[in-house]
Amino acid sequence: MIEFILNDKIIRTNANKSMTLVDFIRENRNLKGTKIVCREGDCGACTVMVGELSQDLQSVKYYTITSCISPLANAQGKHVVTVEGLNIANKLNQVQQSLKDNYASQCGFCTPGFVVAMANYCLNNNAETEQQMLDAISGNICRCTGYVAIINAAKELVESCKEQGKKYTLDQLIKHNFIPQYFASISGNLKKIQSTHQVSGEKIIAGGTDLYVQQANTLLQTPNLRYITLEQGQPVIIEDENCSISGLATVTDLFENQELQNRIPHLQDFLRLLSSEAIRNMATVAGNFVNASPIGDMSAIFLALDATLLIAHKEESREVKLKDFFLDYKKIDLKEGESIAKLWFKLPTKNSHFNFEKVSKRKHLDIATANTAMHIEVKDNRVVSCDLSVGGVAAIPKYLNKTTDFLIGKKVNNETLKQAIEVMNTEITPISDVRGTADYKRLLANQLVKAHFIKLFPELVQFGEV
Ligand SMILES: Cc1cc2nc3c(=O)[nH]c(=O)nc-3n(C[C@H](O)[C@H](O)[C@H](O)COP(=O)(O)OP(=O)(O)OC[C@H]3O[C@@H](n4cnc5c(N)ncnc54)[C@H](O)[C@@H]3O)c2cc1C
Ligand code: FES
Ligand code: FES
Predict the structure, then answer these.
(1) Which atom of ligand 2 is nearest to the CA of 37?
(2) Terminus-to-terminus CA distance in the chain, angstroms?
(3) Which of 44, 315, 342, 449 is deepest in the core (most CB within 10 A)?
(4) Region 421-449: what's the mean pLDDT?
(5) pLDDT score recorded for residue 199
(6) What is the pLDDT of residues 341-389, one digit of tens each?
(7) 198 falls in which pLDDT band (50, 70, 90)?
(8) pTM of whole model > 0.85?
(9) Residue 241 pLDDT grade (very low, low, confident, very high; cuts 50, 70, 90)
């Protein structure tokens, strides 16, 4: 049985756990405000808000997801809010009013998704800037308005949910008609519901953002699924120079970890390039590795951090370097029943630098044509150590063994970079596909590796000289 709160009602249901949340909402509960357009997490029409009790059990932390690629099971113990659950008796709430005042809705099909995403921004006390509001709606597509009106409404909201520069509290949001009164009693009601699940089954579903795009119907018939995100674990642990990330951690868990931001400068800018906020809230790091896409962004980033995986099966476990995990196209070193329990890596130090680059057809909600990450330590202008990955130019996310070996001990300058790129070209094997020709991808890989050096060592390597 699944137990959760949907808007203001406690739901206990024996419905198929692997059906999508949007189908449960629309078909079982007859709440048709949440729309379906793509069923692939790509448009945001099905956006709902999910609230989870904070660790001290005193408040509820809300985030958005696309309910078309999330299994019903993942709602266990949570507060799910649809656009109907934001209604205030006899009037528009402040988010709806702002969209109306700015003429930000035409056909209206995308509007419920925008309303939920913007209300979620207002509910998050730590999200205070215009950039954070834009992040909040980065996964919502509108085909009518051209966005200017929507962004005007969003900017208005950023200002209107503050008092003396501070975001409104939950009580203030209720008082000023952003959200209905019942939100005040949700934390109390969530305490009465079990939020974790017993481990059962061998086939793992994490965020579902890969699985539900490819196999939503098959999963309906698959017995013994293990909904891994309902298990317990601390997503990120940092001790001295070491960082360990749980197999349950989502991209947002990394995005929101302040210590990790301090240790890997610009990490948020890099992670912002991975899909949209709603997808990042569901997508796990481990899921990205196991999906084994040659252009997986997490794979590129953690290859360059030289991560090690702890792979577990029942009481047994083994360690595998991420660079040895990818065997061939979509073939990985993971046997049936095994799971990635955690990964760990050494954090960049004062002398080392990390950078990530990605080229895709659009900035948000798009996978890469090519991506690359580099972690390099330099002393007296010489390379002491280097880990370099590149995606989209081989059958697997590629760790550049030969290129990194070549770089170690060399002076950082235009000539070294020129030669390193020649070495790289011997170890990549791009193919032509819908994302571009083999030549184009090779050129991209070359340019992106140059970009690492030009960004990290502007005084040693110059654009135009390489
Ligand atoms: C709209 C959209 C945009 C996207 N954009 C990007 C993007 O920009 N960049 C990018 O890299 N990816 C992108 N993706 C792909 C996807 O979000 C990521 O690959 C994500 O990290 C997958 O994680 P998940 O938790 O959703 O995996 P799931 O779909 O739940 O699982 C994927 C696979 O991993 C297995 N698995 C999950 N966790 C474990 C574990 N701990 N141990 C063993 N096996 C496990 C599952 O059994 C399954 O085989 C996008 C997807 C969508 C829908
Ligand atoms: S229907 Fe498009 S994201 Fe869900
Ligand atoms: S108003 Fe028509 S899609 Fe946005």
Answers:
(1) 1
(2) 61
(3) 44
(4) 95
(5) 58
(6) 999 999 999 889 999 999 998 877 888 999 999 999 999 999 999 999 9
(7) low
(8) yes
(9) very high
| % of the chain at pLDDT higher than 90 | 89
Nearest atom in ligand 2 to 36's CA = 1
Domain ranges for the chain, please list them: 2-190, 230-456
Structure tokens at 110: 């995308």
Radius of gyration of the CA atoms of the chain, in A: 23
Pocket test for ligand 3, best of 35, 36, 103, 110 (most atoms within 8 A of CB): 110
Q: Which of 347, 363, 236, 214 is nearest to 293 (CA)?
A: 214
Measuring from each residue's beta carbon to the nearest atom of ligand 1, which residues come in under 6 Å? 40-42, 69, 204-211, 213, 228, 247, 274-275, 279, 282-284, 286-288, 290-291, 296-298, 339-340, 365, 367
From the CA of 107, give the closest atom in ligand 3. Answer: 2
Please give the number of the atom of ligand 2 that sits closest to the Cα of 44.
3
Architecture (CATH level 2) of domain 230-456 = 2-Layer Sandwich (3.30)
Nearest to 270 by CA among 49, 43, 62, 452: 452
Structural class in CATH, domain 2-190: alpha beta
Taking residues 1-9, report their average pLDDT: 96
Mean pLDDT of 316-340: 97
> Ligand 3 within 6 A of 110 CB?
yes
- What is the enclosing helix (H) or strand (E) of 320? strand 316-321
State in Å: Cα 79 to ligand 2 middle. Answer: 20
372 within 8 A of 391, measured Cβ to Cβ: yes
CA of 35 to the centre of ligand 3 (A): 12
